[in-house]
Amino acid sequence: MVHALDERIGAKGVTMFFVLIKLELLKLRRSLPLFMMVACPLLVVLLSSGMVLKSGAGPRVGFWVGFWHGNLALWCYFMLPLYIALVTALLNGSEHRNQTWRLLFTLPVSRRQVYLAKTALAWGSVVGANLVLGLLAAAAAAIIAQFRPDAGPAFEVPILAALAKVSLSCLPVVLIQHALSWRVANVVLPLGVGVCATMGILQLSNTAYWPYYPWSYSLVASSATDSAAQPLALMLAGGVGAVLLVLTTWLAGRREVVA
């Protein structure tokens, strides 16, 4: 009987978790986070395409390799960490701004369930932005190919595999920024951390200290020339992400949200 009761409680908890996910998805409709999911990748593709179109009309070795890796570099060096800081601040900031935390916590759900639902939404938003980047870059490549027929095949670079690595390796950063914006009502701190961390990528990603800097994992996992560095970045991202997920979820159930 006790076992059956435990199963019912566990099943109810899982059901409520998915209800929370649906509620969060409903909030996304016509929202600023959804707009930024398209706008940030679009800006990267436009910048990269502009640089490619200005590179000259003659044939170039590795033209398309440069195009795809240019998009990845701009995304991982600059836009992705800023996008993560922005989207996590927006997802939690709406609750801070509208004073809806207490309303959420009156539902038959735990704080940790709410935290995990918002974590899933934040990471899903980043994965969605990566997919949008791939689609927009593919569309841009198809257009540019009409002006550069001498450049060879445009779609031989495994960009989807690289973006999958980016999606996994950015998990620790998503968790750090999400925990900050969950805890602090003022968006200045999470955004400030994101801006400062972005500057650190330029300084540390090409040094021996990159394993200690989670913001460098995405760039290394997707673009490192060292054959051992890419799997190491993915392994570190998975391990650090798992630890952060457990730790931040535990803390979310113990501490009040600053509204």
The tally of beta strands, per DSSP, is 0
Q: Please bin the fraction of helical residues.
A: over 70%
Write down the Rg: 20 Å
End-to-end CA span? 41 Å
Residue runs with pLDDT of under 50 for 5 or more positions: 1-10
Structural class per helix/strand content?
Answer: mainly alpha
Shape: globular
Give the SSE order as H and E letters.
HHHHHHHHHH
Query: Main β-sheet, in a few words?
Result: none
Helix count, DSSP H or I runs of 4 or more residues: 10
Hey, roughly how much beta strand do the residues contain? under 5%
Averaged pLDDT:
83
Provide structural commentary:
- The structure is a single chain.
- This protein is mostly helical and 259 residues long.
- It has ten helices and no strands.
- Helix 2 (32-53) packs antiparallel against helix 3.
- It starts with a helix and ends in a 5-residue tail after the last helix.
Key traits:
single chain, 259 residues, mainly alpha, 10 helices, disordered N terminus
Record the SSE blueprint.
Elements: H1 2-28, H2 32-53, H3 63-98, H4 101-105, H5 111-147, H6 159-169, H7 171-183, H8 188-204, H9 217-223, H10 229-254
